[in-house]
Design a protein that fits this description.
Blueprint lengths: L1 H16 L10 E18 L28 E6 L4 E10 L2 E10 L17 E9 L2 E7 L25 E9 L2 E6 L3 E4 L6 E4 L6 E9 L5 E15 L2 E18 L2 E11 L13 E3 L5 E3 L1 E12 L4 E13 L2 H4 L4 E16 L2 E14 L4 E14 L1
């Protein structure tokens, strides 16, 4: 009977998503959400702006602001790409809750153009099902505490100081503890050239454990650890190494205000930090993997001026312990960014805001790049 109820609930959810009337199947509740967000970004790149449509023109991506020779420094971009929508089902199955969730937005794609239509394909952010503490599908990596991210207008906000990955996984939650096996992917720097090698080799998933806890004063924290196999088996290369790391994050109430932070350290973290600002390791002259150490973090203070006005002040950064004797010096070394904004919500679902951000990146060979950006945004939460 229980299996039949679960099957009926899943069938009802799928039928509803296909546009048929199945709202009563398996006592399922359906919820639609998301928001509409429009951004206007005035950017000043120290060494020449990226081309129109490049990722750095959509939001701050550490490692992409070194500039492009021949291009002007100052650009303006209008976009509504961050707009997103989600659909959730929740079904009572003999006292247990079966949940399905899918969310899409329009970031990162370059299949449209700004000449006529500004059309961009939707992409999956989240797509998972949960039942009795088990979650299967794509969502935030368990290594990251997404709730601790600052309230910034930039798409990520503090990108260089935080873990930031969404990927397929199987996760089990028991009280304050979470355990997950997640999709593995290795990024390495080639010997001497520093160019990126991406490898999907290996049979061992990334393993993550996390503990969430709260204090009597209302502060919430998370401590997470990760162990992963770095593996490459391609083009005559065949080696593996162990990567590991830890991340501590939290939100501390200060009256009505709050302080948010994340601090992360590890060996071989690579793509888990700062949008893959650095690789997990580098190859030596014999094709063996040498892991790279990294440390990153951010702190953000959000102050409420009154019921409708608020500001966040954020500082973020990351540094990498490169082994230039193997990779060469054309590899990312460190990144830093700072943000200040002013947000106004005349009603709860509607927010207007302005934000100034400054970012600077540098390589081991002395190359650096700076970005000054002012963002104006309007957001309507559904």
């Amino acid at each position: 009977m229980k299996q039949a109820a679960i099957s009926l609930a899943l069938a009802g959810a799928l039928a509803s998503m296909a546009g048929t009337a199945a709202a009563e199947a398996g006592k399922t509740d359906f919820t639609f959400g998301g928001y509409i967000k429009a951004d206007v970004m005035f950017s000043d790149y120290s060494n020449g702006a990226p081309d129109s449509g490049d990722l750095s023109r959509q939001f701050y991506v550490p490692g992409t602001i070194y500039g492009k020779d021949g291009n002007g420094n100052q650009v303006v971009d209008f976009q509504a790409r961050e707009t997103r929508f989600n659909f959730k089902t929740a079904t009572d199955v003999d006292g247990h809750t079966l949940t399905g969730f899918i969310e899409l937005d329009f970031m990162t794609h370059t299949d449209g153009n700004e000449r006529v239509s500004n059309s961009y394909s939707p992409r999956i952010r989240h797509a998972y099902v949960s039942y009795d503490g088990w979650t299967a599908g794509q969502t935030w990596t368990t290594f990251q505490n997404a709730s601790a991210l600052p309230e910034n207008l930039d798409f990520v906000g503090a990108a260089d100081g935080t873990p930031f990955v969404r990927q397929a996984q199987v996760r089990y939650t028991s009280g304050a503890f979470q355990f997950a096996l997640e999709n593995p992917e290795t990024t390495l720097s080639a010997n001497q050239t520093g160019s990126r090698i991406t490898s999907g080799s290996g049979m061992i998933p990334d393993a993550v454990a996390r503990y969430n806890f709260k204090t009597e004063g209302g502060a919430s924290f998370s401590l997470s650890g990760i162990a992963r196999q770095l593996n490459v088996e391609q083009n005559g290369l065949d080696d593996s190494a162990l990567g590991y790391g830890a991340s501590f994050a939290g939100i501390i109430p200060v009256g009505k205000d709050d302080l948010r932070f994340t601090a992360t350290w590890g060996e071989g973290l690579g793509r888990y930090m700062a949008l893959n600002f650095a690789n997990a390791g580098t190859l030596d002259a014999n094709g063996n993997i040498e892991t790279l150490g990294s440390f990153g973090g951010f702190v953000s203070y959000r102050h409420w001026w009154n019921e409708q006005w608020r500001s966040s002040f954020t500082v973020s950064g990351m540094s990498v312990d490169n082994k230039v004797e193997y990779s060469g010096a054309k590899v990312n070394k460190d990144a830093m960014s700072a943000y200040v904004n002013l947000l106004y919500s005349p009603s709860k679902p509607l927010t207007f805001g302005v934000e100034y951000m400054y970012a600077t990146n540098s390589m081991e060979n002395g190359t650096d790049g700076d970005l000054n950006r002012v963002i104006f945004s309007a957001k309507y939460a559904l």
